[in-house]
Design goal:
Layout (H helix, E strand, L loop, with lengths): L1 H6 L1 H14 L5 H12 L5 H12 L6 H23 L4 E2 L2 E2 L1 H5 L1 H21 L3 H23 L8 H26 L4 H28 L2 H4 L5 H4 L5 H9 L2 H11 L6 H13 L2 H18 L8 H15 L3
Antiparallel strand pairs: 1-2
Length: about 325
């Protein structure tokens, strides 16, 4: 990843500056909350994908900086809303914005970021980019609702769960890739190749999040271990375990996910079950398969630093520990 960060160092700095500029508002709380989330770090994967896709197509203008900032705006808005829906207390190892300023402020600032994103999209002057990102945000909202109605559903299939992941997470990553392709004037075949790369990568990214939720150190990962289970989320490690466990074990899980609060013993029992039936290993293997498929979509492009960087970024998704 160091090689990718070095390649994009100057452009990423410009994106950070653009993000702060776009946060400008006469309402101080908006700037405070926005800058708090921005300062908490994050991988900036979506902006990097915009920049790399544009570079892959030989783009030489400066609009990719603004588009990368918009994509991060949209992502930040979803984080603010997600933490309220999930009752999260941590985000990237720090107190979540809703913990610091309350749910009302987090929702409203998230609304501001979404609204400002559309204003910024229009300024790109590209109807294709506006369509790609507006379609993505619509699908993301559908994904959030789909996840909500899937809460505590022990019959949730892997296929159905993948649809949640596509809609909620992967679609914005795919759109980031497509926007970079649009800016550089790629034909539809290459735009679609990058879109497909981003979609496979986005699903793999979420699958790794699913695995890390049960095994990562809280200080490294930046959120409470087992938080998905506390929220009643049926993620892939648990879906895989439920496919193979006994009916008695399944009944134990059903009783646990229905609880208002989970004890450490509850979490330990479900985690042990997931390990017993190799839910973590299965999830990691599925993520690796998706990354390999993602990289195969880059075959239509000639060798370049940007292509190498996209492949490095893809491999990073399955080797990260946070």
């Amino acid at each position: 990843m160091e090689r990718v960060l070095k390649l994009l160092e100057n452009e990423l700095s410009l994106v950070e500056n653009q993000f702060r500029h776009d946060l400008d508002s006469e309402v101080l709380l908006i700037r405070k909350v926005g800058e708090y989330v921005l300062a908490s770090g994050g991988k900036r994967m979506r902006p990097m994908l915009v920049l790399l896709a544009a570079r892959l197509g030989g783009y030489s203008g400066d609009k990719h900086i603004g588009v990368a900032s918009v994509v991060e705006f949209i992502h930040t808005a979803t984080l603010l809303h997600d933490d309220v829906v999930d009752s999260a207390s941590l985000r990237r190892g720090e107190k979540s914005a809703n913990t610091v300023w309350g749910n009302e402020a987090s929702v409203l600032v998230g609304d501001f970021l979404f609204s400002k994103s559309f204003s910024l999209m229009v300024r790109t002057g590209s109807l294709a980019i506006l369509q790609a990102l507006s379609d993505a945000t619509t699908i993301m909202a559908e994904g959030e609702v789909l996840q909500l109605i899937s809460t505590c559903d022990l019959d949730l299939s892997e296929e159905r769960y993948m649809q949640v992941v596509r809609d909620k997470t992967a679609v914005l990553i795919a759109a980031a890739c497509r926007c970079g392709a649009i800016l550089s004037g790629m034909d539809e075949t290459r735009q679609q190749a990058l879109n497909d790369f981003g979609m496979e990568l986005g699903i793999a990214f979420q699958f790794m999040d699913d695995a890390l939720d049960y095994v990562a150190d809280q200080e490294e990962f930046g959120k409470q271990c087992g938080h998905d289970l506390e929220e009643g989320k049926m993620t892939l490690p648990l879906i895989e375990a439920l496919r193979h466990c006994s009916s008695a074990e399944r009944e134990q899980v059903a009783e646990i996910v229905d609880k208002e609060e989970l004890s450490s013993d509850d979490l330990a029992l479900v985690t042990a079950l997931i390990h017993r039936y190799d839910g973590i290993g299965y999830t990691r293997r599925r993520a690796q398969e998706l990354v390999e498929r993602a990289k195969s979509h880059l075959a239509v492009f000639s060798a370049s630093d940007a292509k190498d960087a996209l492949e490095i970024l893809a491999d990073y998704v399955v080797t990260r520990n946070k």
